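Troubleshooting entry. Yesterday's outputs looked truncated, so today I'm pasting the complete records for two proteins to confirm everything comes through intact. If either block looks cut off, that's the bug. Protein one:
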Amino acid sequence: MKKTWLFLIPVSVFLVLVIFLYLGLFSNPRQMDSQADGKPLPAFSLPDLMAPNTTYTPDDLKGEVTILNVWGVWCVTCAVEMPYLTTLRQEQGVRFVGLYFDQDLDPDFGTKTLTRVQQEVTDMLSRYGNPYQYNIFDVYRDTSLDLGVTGAPEHFLIDHRGVVRMHHIGDINQRVWESKIGPRYRALLKEKEEGS
């Protein structure tokens, strides 16, 4: 009887491991359940990156359908998507708000002055286009962590009530916009117009 149990334990562990690896093999690494979907934005009070005396809270995102874009100048993919985001703002009136954080303000990476961060952001936006209404400065990344951000770029589609309705990891390009985000964005605009 004991020999049977000793045999079943490693076999059971092996089967669990095989199932786990099999599921991982066929999963989409960009498809993650977001802890923010269907919930109001987490509480925050953060400064405007370019005008630090101005402070934003989740209430400032209410009333309009908004895409909150987590980004930084250190993010190569952010630079790649920026011209397309700018086109969406200019041609379709899509409302983007940036949630900016800088790795170099982290003690593990070194330090920068706010003036230098602002100059780097200004340079990048003038080079690639500026899709943003404004940029919220997530100085210590607390809000990014509360949203479950794993990197950049990440996008949160927020309805006019301030509720996160979609979380997209990765860039927004024409294919992603037309097949995934654009239809949801337009549906939320219609929902807002109908007052529902």
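Protein two, checking that the full record survives here as well:
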Amino acid sequence: MNLEQKSPAGEVTPRWIQAVSVIGSFVAALWVIELVDMLLSNRLDREGIEPREADGLLGILFAPLLHAGWGHLAANTLPLLVLGFLILLSGIGTWVAVTLIVWGVGGFGTWLTGGENTIHLGASGLIFGWLVYLLVRGLFTGRPGQIALGVVVLLVYGSVLWGVFPGQEGISWQGHLFGAVGGAIAAWLLAERGNKDPQRTR
């Protein structure tokens, strides 16, 4: 399915322009949400994931949209823009599918394994999921271009993968870990493996 859009004049919008528009709008929305949160004295932060609490399940829907202050959001902004843009070059539908899988797997995994009396929030789970998706999708599709891009992404962002391990206090390594798992699952589920047409019998 071709997700490129036509202008009123009938011209096809280049894929990279769509990518910039979509990921730019998504990240801008996160900044607007953080502004609203600040004006509400950080009340929205209570809507993050509360592990193994029934009410905390709703946090799976909201956690990636919420951040613990401007510094937290600023740290996530550039990786979101870069990694989201790279996935969007494969189409809006691909980005939506990858994001939903990472969002769901990362959120539910965090809800199951997070520490007691904690609230998990932030888009870093998406970052880890998008990162792992870009790293491994070429292994499933066998496409040289995707493999090469995965190597470049690994060289630039690979060091952040240490964030899937416990260590730094106040950091949701569970969100990172299960976001990464979601990215691997998305790469496997969405891979176009180039199946050949079955042979016809006469």
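Both blocks look complete. Sanity check on protein two: Residues 15-190 form a domain with the Rhomboid-like fold fold (CATH 1.20.1540.10).
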